[in-house]
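yo

u said u wanted the structure for the complex thing, so here. seqs first:
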Amino acid sequence: MKSKQDIFTDHLRDHQGIIIKVARMYADNPDDQSDLIQEISFQLWKSFDGFKGESKFSTWLYRVALNTSITFLKKEKRRVDKMSLGVGVEAISDLTAVDKNSQLSHFYKAVQELNKIEKAVIFLFIEGLAHKEIAANLGLSEVNTRVKLNRTKQKLQEIIKKQGYEF
Amino acid sequence: MNFDELKKEMDDSIVNQNIDLSQIEWGKVGQNPVQKIRSNMKSEIMIQLAAILIFMIYPLYIAMPEFSEAIYYVFMFITSLMTMAYILKLSFFLKRTSRFALNTKDALHYFIYEAKLTLEVYKSFIIAGSLLLPVPVFALLSGFKLSGDVWLFEKWFLLDVSRFELVLLIIGYIAVAFIFYFITVAWTKMLYGKYLAVLEQVLSDLEP
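structre next:
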């Protein structure tokens, strides 16, 4: 019989893509992305007892991953120590694998100018969640979610235009 | 902006990416404001309890003069009671928020409100306690010194001093009170305030 930790790591492996995508939305460099991936994984493990299987694992993961990212505190001091020691502990193989000239690269660059809630709203929208689900994930009302989503889309378009790119 | 295309590019870009689970630190303190506040509070409770114990036991080893020792213990007893009162308040807060998840705006509101309320009580008690603390500290430091054939601390405590010395005593005490006040405010801000500010920013971003 599988242990609790084995069940958890199986789930995590199956859904690791979501965590990597969330990390890219919230952090603009490999070090911060790696820290955030660690933090999300840790928070998921910590609250795994609360996952009763009533919803899909991915639904629960979206909620925990985004809540973690919204309140995540960067560890600036540790980074200096790490650099001075020349040690790079990365939780992911290659985080800079996005083509620098691609539409996606411009999108990620523009996203860094959004606030943390706007990032969550646009991310869940891109992931294909309905307004109602986005609202439930972020603890917002549906009307507020709609307003926020429209404003965020507009804001994003303007930022990308300012970067001299359009898509 | 074509979000379907973006979604496809996003998914394609992570195809060969894997999280190395062996690098995850499973037993650390979470890097989020709620866990930082809770962890700082737990450390503070332990430190304060240890401090009370040390301050209560230490004079037993140095055989202070009777008068200094009596005053020392009376003031330390009152200060310790005040410390215990806010430690209790901090413990209740920790208990109430032990399985806390910031997954709704209301939960965020609740946490910020409770934390601020608890910290106001904490600050008030610390400042009040700190105003009493100089007396036992002075008893400890000057308890063995003689002024003529009277103990120096006894003379000062019973205000058997010249008018000039009295003015100096009052100014010194007020100065110490201000220093304690500013240290307490700065300390609270460093341990808790900066994390509450992060939560307040999230709350403000959630507003329509």
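Chain A is about 70% helix and 0% strand. The domain at 1-96 of chain A is CATH 1.10.1740.10 (Rna Polymerase Sigma Factor; Chain: A).
cya
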